[in-house]
Amino acid sequence: MTDTIIQIKNVCKIFGGLIAVNQVNIDVPEKYIYSIIGPNGAGKTTLFNCITGFYIPEKGEILFYGDPIQGLSTNLVAWLGLSRTYQNIRLFTNLTAVENILIGLHPNLKSSWFDAIVHTRSFIKEESGSVKEALRLLDYVGLKGYGDFLAKNLPYGLQRRLEIGRALANQPKVLLLDEPTAGMNLHETAEATHFIKRLRDELGITIILIEHDMKVVMGISDRISVLDYGMKIAEGNAAEIQANPRVIEAYLGPGGAALSEKYKKQRQSYAQSHRS
Amino acid sequence: MLKVTDLNVHYGAIHALQGVSFNLEEGEIVTLIGANGAGKSTLLNTISGLLRADQGEVEYLGENITNFEPQKIVPKGIVQVPEGRKIFAAMTVMENLEMGAFTVTDKKLISDKVEEMFAKFPILGKRSKQLGGTLSGGEQQMLAIARGLMASPRLLLLDEPSMGLSPVLVEQIFDIIQNINHTGTSVILVEQNAQMALCIADRAYVLETGKIVLEGEAQEVLQNPMVIEAYLAVTE
Amino acid sequence: MNRNLFTTSINKGFTFGIVMIFLVLIDFEVMAATMLSKLLGVNVVRGALPEVRFMIIFLVLYGLFVGWFASSDQEKPAKKLFQALIAGLTVAVVVGLFDIALNQLITTGTDVRAYLAALGPASIKLFLLEKGALGSLLHLGLFTGASLLGSVLKILLKSDPMSHFLKGISTVYRDLRAKTQAITPNWIKEYGKYLLFLLIGLSAFFLPRMWGSYNNYVLGLVGLYVILGIGLNIIVELSGQLMLGFAAFFAMGAYSMALLNAPLPHGIMLGFWPALAIGVLMAVLAAVLLGLPVMGMRGDYLAIVTLGFGEIIRILLKSDLLTDFTGGPRGIQDIKGPTLFGQPFSSDIDYTYIILVFMILSIFIYKRLERSRTGRAWMAVKEDTKVAEATGVNIKNSKLLALCLGAAFAGLAGGIFAARNQFTGPNDHQLMVSMNILSILIVGGINSVPGIILGAFTLKGLPEILREIENYRLLVFGGLLVFMMISRPEGLWPATRPNIEKDEGNRQKAESPPGKGGQHD
Amino acid sequence: MVNENRPPRRYKRSNLSKIVRWVLGIIVLSYIFWRLYTVFIVQNEYTPDIWFRLLISGLVIGGVYSLIAIGYTLVYGILRMINFAHGEVMMIGTFAGYFVFEATNAIKFTSSSGEITSLSNAQPVLAVLLAFMVGMAVASTAGFLLEKIAYRPLRKAPRLIPLISAIGASIFLQNLAQLLFSPLVRDYKNPALIARGQGWPVTIAGAQVVIPYTGVLTFSMSIILMFALYTMVKKSKLGKSMRAVAADKPTAALMGIDVNAVISQTFIISGLLAGAAGVMWGLHNGLVYYYVGFLPGIKAFTSAVLGGIGNIPGAMLGGMLLGLIESIGPTALGISYQLKDVLAFVILIIILVFRPSGILGEVLSEEKV
User: Fold this and answer.
1) pLDDT tens digit string along D85-106?
2) Could you give the ipTM of this predicted complex?
3) Would you list the DSSP string of A98-140?
4) Which of D6, D11, D179 is the best residue to mutate to test the C interface, defined by the most C CB atoms within 10 Å of its own CB?
C-alpha cells in the first residue's frame, strides 16, 4: 500500500515578517517512516505544529486521507488519529506513567462525568478496559513496573518512551516524533531507532520524524525531506540525500573551496604583517 | 587565557555537557562545532554564567570564575553574543549599544565606543535612531556583535553568528570576526557553518552529544572525515 | 568567612527583632501568652491578661526559634553556637531599644492607643514583665539564652522536626494502611470498607447529640467549608483555573434559598429541598454564564475576572437597585429549615446531620470524578493545557464542566448555610469568603480530601474554638499563604497518585487461582 | 492494537463560545446605547456644570489610578506576574502620609502675629512635601521588602504560585494594618490652605462650580510624576535596563545587568508611585483605613489591563479613562452611583473578553507568556 496519508500542499507559516515555513510540499505515503531534517531554525518543528493544529498556516493545505485538516483545533486533530511527541519532552509530570497513558486514551473513550459519579455499567467496563489497555501499552514501550512512578521521576530515556506510549494510546494513524533521540547516548539511541522501526512494522503506523542524529535518520527512513530557511531543498532516500550538494551546503555552510582560499590568504597575509 | 576542566552541566533532564575540557590562548579564535544539540550553546552559557555547572571548573586569567553570575563575568571582559541575536527589539540601535556598555560607567568612554562602532559598522550609524526590531537580519547580527564589543571584551563568545543569514552576509560577518580578532580580542566561535568557521579559526573542537570527540588545529580538523560524519553520518 | 558569619547572624537577628516589635505592636505576644496559659491548663478570664510567667515562656520559645533558625546553614557546632549567640544578642538589642521607648511611654503616661491600637499600658507592662526598665535587661538574658539553647537543640536533633512531623503524619498513615492491608484477611478487605463506613456513620449519628450546640455549630461550619473546598478544588486544583470569586456561586445558593424559602420579601415559601435544588441550578447557571465568554483566558487574567465577577454579584446584592428584590444591605431573615418525615429541622445539631450527609456525598462524588476519564482530563489540562489538547481533550468543555460542577457544590453549601443561619446578607459573600476557601485548599493539600478536611478544620474550626486568635486569623492566613507557597506549595497533606499498576496486578493475582500465579512475563 | 480496522472519523466545527461572545457584545453595546439615549435625549436633565464637576473628579481619581496602574504594569512587564498586593503598598503610603500630617499638626508654636498655629498650617508646602516624601519612601520600602520576601523565592515557580503568594501578602498587609492601627476610619488632617471642599469657584453655564485645591494639587502631582517616570524609563540608565530586563532576562544578564537588582528597583519605583498615589488619595478623599488600598488597587489593575498591561503609556491612559468612566459613567448611563464599582469590573471583564491586549498593548502570544 502506498496511498498518501498526509499531503502537505504549499504550506506557508509566517511569524511577524519571518517566513518560518515557505511553500512546502510533502507527500507522506502510508506506513512510511518519513524524516524531515534540516539545520537549526529551518522550520521543521513549525511544520509539525502546523500539521497538528498548534499553528494555523497562512497559506496552503494539509490533507489527511484527502480531507483538509489545517486550522482544526488540536484535540480534533488528535481525535482524527494524529499523535505527536515533543522536542523537549512534555509529559504530565505530576501524574503517574499509567495516568499519562490513560489520558492518551481519552479520544477513544466515551464515558461522561455523570457515568463516573453513578458508576454505570458501561463506565466500569470502559474503565477496567482502559486500565488494561494502558498497562499493555506500558509494557509495549518497555515501562513495565514503572507504571506508578510520577512521570517527572522517571529517567530521561523512559520519559521519551512514555511520551511515545501516550501518543500510541490514541491509536494513531500517523505518529509525529520530534527529535525522539535528543539527549540520548549511543546505546539508547540505537534502542530507540529499533523501537521506532518496530512501531511501523508491527503496528502499521505511519511515522513522520524530525531528527538531527543522522545515523538514526539514514538508518530507518524510507524517505527524507530536507528543509532550509523554511523551504524544502531536497527530497529522496538516504543515499540521495547524502550525495546532494545542496544538503551538504546547508549543513556545512556555503562557500567551500573559494571562500576557504580567501580566508587562507587573509590569514597568511595577517601573519606575515605581524611577523615583520 | 580560558581553561575549562571537566565541565558537567545538566539542562533539565538532559546531561548536556559530560566532562568537557578545553582551553584557549590569548589572541586565538577557537571554534566549537557540532550538530544541533551537541552542547555548544550550553558550553557558552555556562562560561558566561547563565547556566550553572554541576561539576568542573572554568578558569579565566588564572581566576576561578565557575558559576559566577553574569554581571560579575562581564566586567572581567568575557562577553557573549547570544544565539539568534537577541536584539532588544523595542529599543533603538543607540540604546541597544548603550545596553552593551552597561558595565561601563565612564560616559566619555561610552560615546567614544559608540563612535568606534559606527565607524566599524556604518550601517548602524545610519540607523541609530531606528528600533532594533525593524533592522534586517544581517543588520541585527552586526548590532548584536557591536553591542557585545561595547564592553571592550578581551574574550568574545559568538553563538551562531551566521544563523539565518544569506551567504554574502555570512561572508561579511566572518570578515568582521576576523577583524575583531586582529584587534586583539580572543574569540570562541560556535558555528553550524563548520567549513567557514574552520577557515578562520586557529583551533577547533568538535562536540557530539555533550562530549568533545575531536580537537586540533583548524586546518587539520577541516580535513578530518569525522567532521562530516558528525554532521551527516556519511560513514561509507 | 567569619565576618560573613557575623553579618548574616546580625541580619537574621535584626529581622527577628523587627518581627518581635511588630508582634508587640499588634499585641500578638499577649494573645500568644494567653494561649500558652490555656494550653498549660490555666484558665484565663476572657479579656484579662495572662500571668507574667506565660509571657516569659512565650519569649523563651521565640528565642529558641531564633536560635534554631539563625544557626541553620552551618555545619560545625561552634559556628552554630556563635551564630545563635550573635543573632540572640541582636534581637535583644533591637527589642531592648524598643523596650526603652515603651518604658518611656508608661512612665510619662502617654497613651498612643489612638494611633497604635494595641499598645495599651497593661499589655506593655506585661511585655516588660512588670519590671519597667529592668524588663529590657531581662529580655536581653531571655533572648540570648534561649537562642543559644535553640541552637544546642538544633545540634542535638540535627533535623528539621517541623517538616519531619508533617511528613511523619502522612507516611505513618500510609504505612499503617499498607500494613493493615497486608495482614487483614480477604473478607475484611472485601467488606471492611463497609464496616468502616458503618462505624463512621454510627459515630456521625451519635456524636453530635453528645456535643452541645456550639460544637455542632463549629462542626457544621467545618463541614460546609469542606463541601466548598471540594467544589473549589475541582475548579482550581483539578482543572487548574484559579477562581477568586467562588463566593458568587455560594451567594447564588444562599440567595435562592432565602428568596424562595423566607416570608420576606417575596414569601414564596417553596420549602427547603426544592429551594436547595434551585440554588444548585442557579449556581450552575451562573457558572455557565461566566464560563462561556471567559473560558479561553489565561490563568492570571481568569483569576482577576472571576474576582471581579464575585465583587459584581456582592455589590449588586447590596445595591439599591435590587433592594426590593433581595433585601439590599439588610439581607433576608427568617429562612425556614427543612422538614424530614414531618420533623422540622432547626437546631445546629439537626443541621450537622444534613451537612454531614452532604459532605460525605460530596467527597464520594469528588472521589469518583477524580478517578475517571473526566478527572484525568482535568488534571491533564492543569498540567499542560496545550499538550492536553493535543492529546485529544476538549479544553473548553472540560474547563466549563469543572466550573459548573464546582459551582454546584458552592450552591449546595450556600443553600444550607443560609437556612442554618436563618439569614443571609451581602456580607456573607465577601471576597474574604472566596479567599478563605482558597486558603483551605492551599494549606490543606492539592487534590486531597484529607487535606481539605484538615485545612477546613485548621482554618475554620480552630479559630472558632480558640477565640483568642480570632483577630489574628486573617493575618496568619496571609502570612501562611506566602509561607506555604515558598516552602511547601503542595500543601500540608498532598494527595499521592493512585497505584494503578500495582492495584491491577494485585487484582489479577487475587482473581487467578493460587499456585498458578498471575502474570509472570 | 486495532489500528488498521479503526473506523474513519468525521469532525464538526463548533463556534458556540464565539457566538456567545458576539451575542454578549451586542447586548452590552445596545444596552449602553439605549441608556445613553435615554439619559441624553429623552431625560436630558443634567446641566453642563454637573458634567464639568464629574469631569474634574474623574480626572483627579484617574490620576491616582494611573500612578498605581504604572506599578502594576512595570512589575508585570518584568516578571509577568500580577502584583496583587500593590494596592496594599498604596495603603501603607496613605498611612505614612497620615502620620506625617498628624505629627506636623501636633507641633504647635506661636507665630509672629501671636496666634498659636501648627507646623502644618504655618508651613503647608513643607508639610505636604514631607508627607509625600515619607509616604513614597515608606511605600517603596514596603514594595522592596514585598518582592524580596514574597516573590523572589518563587521566581521560577509556575505562574499561579506567585499570584497566590501575592494574594497572601495582600491579606497579610491589610490585617497587619488593621491590627496596628485598629479598624477605625480616620480623617486626613490637611493643612488649612488646602482643606478639602475648598477651591476656586468657576462659573459654567450660569452655575457655580468649585475646582477643589486638593484636586488641582493631586492632578498636577500625578502628571508631574508620570512625566518624570516616563522620562526616567526612556532616558536614564536604570530605565533602559528595566526595559532590557523586561524584554529578555538572559540577554540582559549577558550585558552585565544585575537582573535581580533591576527587579528590586522596579518594585521600589512602583512603590514610590503607589505611595504618592496613597497620599494623594488621602488628601483628596480624606479617609484612611486598612482597607483603603483594596479597591483602588483592583481599579488600577483594571486600568493597566484597559491600557494594555506591560505598557506604561497604556497604564496612564487606562487610569485616566477608568477614572472618567467611573465618575461620569453612572450618571451618563443613568444608573445608581453605588454601582460605579460594578461598572469598573464589568469593563474589566469586557476588555479581557474582547481585547485581552488592551488599548495600547501588544498581543502576547502564548509562547511568550
Assistant:
1) 999 999 999 999 999 988 888 8
2) 0.82
3) HHHHHHHTGGG----HHHHHHT-HHHHHHHHHHHHHHHHHHHH
4) D179
